[in-house]
Structure formats: C-alpha cells, structure tokens
Amino acid sequence: MPRHRFVLGLVLVGCGIVVCFDRLPSGQGGAVNGFVRGDATADGEINLTDAVAMLWCHFAVTGCPTCADAADVNDDGLNDITDPIYCLNYLFLEGAQPPAPFEACGPDPTADDLVCESFVPCPPVDADTIPTANGDLVITPVEHASLVLRWNDVTIYADPVGGAAKFAGLPAPDIIFVTHTHSDHLNRATILAVAGEGTVLVVPQAVSQSLAGQGGTAGIEQKLLANGGNAAVAGIEIEAVPMYNARHVKGEGNGYVLSLGGARVYIAGDTEDIPEMRRLEAIDLAFIPMNLPFTMTVEQAASAVLEFKPRVVYPYHYRGQDTRRFKSLVDAESGEVEVRLREWYPTS
C-alpha cells in the first residue's frame, strides 16, 4: 500500500467519524490578522505536520493551533475530522486545494464562530468598519496617504505607494484611486505591482500624463475624471471633487466622494481648507490631511470637519502633527462626529 494511503487510513481509523479537535478557540468574529488556510501550525508551510497538529490537539489536548480559522481547512465553519482529511487529500491524493485565503495571507471570507488568536506568518491588518446597507465597509490604514477599503467583495486602494509589501495580506484592488502626481501619492511601480486582473485606475488627467511619461500602465484600464466628473465602477458611484493648495492648482488633482451601500466616503488628498470641502453634505466617512505647510493646520482641519460634519473622520497624511489635539477640538464642539486615531506611520 502506498505510504500516503496508509497515513490517511490511520487518520480515519484513529479518529472515527467524530469531532477530533473541538478544543480549538472559538467565538464570534473572524481572524484578527490575516491567515493562510491549512497552515494549522502557522509555520509558513502546509504539510503533514498540519494534519498531525489538528489530531494531536484532540488526543493530547495540548499544542492546539492558535488560529482556528487556519485549521478550518474546508471552510465549513467547524474544526472536525473533515479538516485533516481534506488536508491529507490535498497533499497526497491530488484533492482540491483549500478555499481562500490559501495562496496568500487574507481575511476569512466566510462568517463563522471561529477565531484566530494569532497567525505569525501574516502581518497584522489594522481594519476598522462602518455599517452600510449592503454589509460592512472595512477600512485599513496603510501609511501616510495610502489606504484600503473593502466592501461587498470590492477592494479599493487609494494612493498606493511603497511597494507591494505594504499591502501584503490584502486582496488585489478592483479600483485604484490616485489623487495627484506627487510621489507620496503616485508610484507607478507600486500600481503595477498591486494591480490585478480587471483593476480600474481612476485618475485626473495630470496623473495619467505623468504615468505615460514614466512608461505607462499597459493592461490597466484608466478612467479619467476632472473636478466635478462622475463615473460608476464595480457598483460604486464616484464623484471627483476639487483638491488644491499652494502647490497644486485647482483642477490638477482630485479628491473623491464614493457612494457605496448608501454610505458616502470622502478621500480628501492634499487639500487646503477650501470652500468646496466645507460644502460637502451627508458624508459618512472622511479622510482629512493636516500636515504643514501645504494642506491644513490641525485647527483648520478641525474647523472644516465641524462645518461639514462627517459621521466618522480619520486624520491621515498628518506626519508630525498633533492628531490628539484635532480630536479634542472636534470632540469639544460636536457629539455628532466620531474621530478615529490610527497609526499611519508604522516604525517597522
């Protein structure tokens, strides 16, 4: 008998058709960090030791995987005998590969009661949410002006720079928004590295011209919008709004207002305290810059936010500024605006 069939036979005889490792952690919610399905030992590889670890957890009640989602190899929301069998079938009998996330780190796409206490091979994902009519909008700060939004199976990158490693563990973008041409917002190499099949690049004319001068983005569809322009991509309504300051003349760059699931999201880009921003209405989520000398002071940003009153606001693009003061100014004048302070300048 081939060795792999003998191993699978031992698993079936030793366990029977019973739950083999019901002592894994469980509770409401999905993984705190990204994970790779099938890598129960969280060592960066999927092999026989993962199936053994699942069984050992049951029989010895020690060494249980710290990520129940990773041990849910068939993604049925349970940790039972079918998971090591699925793993062994994949490894030795040319069975189907585990469902996503499998080839790269990622969140659990299936709602269940399993949790992932830790999964060291995948970088932490600092994700927040706000509710919409069609499910939660998930917000992931990346760095400086780069951010990721996920909603209704659509993934959005805004101003991605810094290389693909900055976005490890996140799905490829369906839409990439670029606000203007400066290098802390526009990086052709990063766009080419993170774009997937069917990615649409939404940009102002100046960004398109800059990319063309750097060699272009062959194979990536571009949608050009001027201030006041509108478009719809992947079920998301897009409005390009003015974004300007002492370095960017009006019309050169775009802020964006996105409408998804009834929620309106404002991505400001490099804007000063401009009247067009203060006149925005019914904004549920806003990303507001506040770094000198070209965007806004903390006081200007707080004053603008208090006027157009987004339901949730993230200060971003704030290098060296006191975001706690921004929060205190907004909190002191309004109970309607929730200020979320997050780390946009990781040290590692």
Could you please describe the fold and organization of this structure?
The chain is of the alpha/beta class. The protein has two domains: 90 residues, Type 1 dockerin domain (Orthogonal Bundle), CATH 1.10.1330; 212 residues, Ribonuclease Z/Hydroxyacylglutathione hydrolase-like (Metallo-beta-lactamase, Chain A), CATH 3.60.15.10. It is 24% helix and 21% strand. The protein has nine helices and 14 strands. Strand 11, helix 7 and strand 12 form a beta-alpha-beta unit. Helix 1 packs antiparallel against helix 4 and helix 2 runs antiparallel to helix 4. It is elongated, with a radius of gyration of 23 Å.
CATH architecture of the largest domain: 4-Layer Sandwich
Radius of gyration: 23 Å
Tell me the number of helical segments per DSSP (H or I, 4 or more residues long). 9
Structural category: alpha/beta
CATH topology of the largest domain: Metallo-beta-lactamase, Chain A
Look at the structure and name the CATH superfamily of the largest domain.
Ribonuclease Z/Hydroxyacylglutathione hydrolase-like
Compute the number of strand runs.
14
Shape: elongated
Query: End-to-end span in angstroms?
Result: 51 Å
CATH top-level class of the largest domain? Alpha Beta
Strand arrangement across the biggest beta sheet: 1-2-3-4-5-6-7
Order of helices and strands: HHHHEEEEEHEHEEEEEHEHEHE
Uncertain segments of ≥5 residues (pLDDT<50)?
Answer: 1-32
Largest sheet: 7 strands, mixed
Q: Beta-strand level of the residues, as a percent range? A: 15-25%
Number of domains: 2
* Helix residue percentage: 10-25%
Mean pLDDT: 87
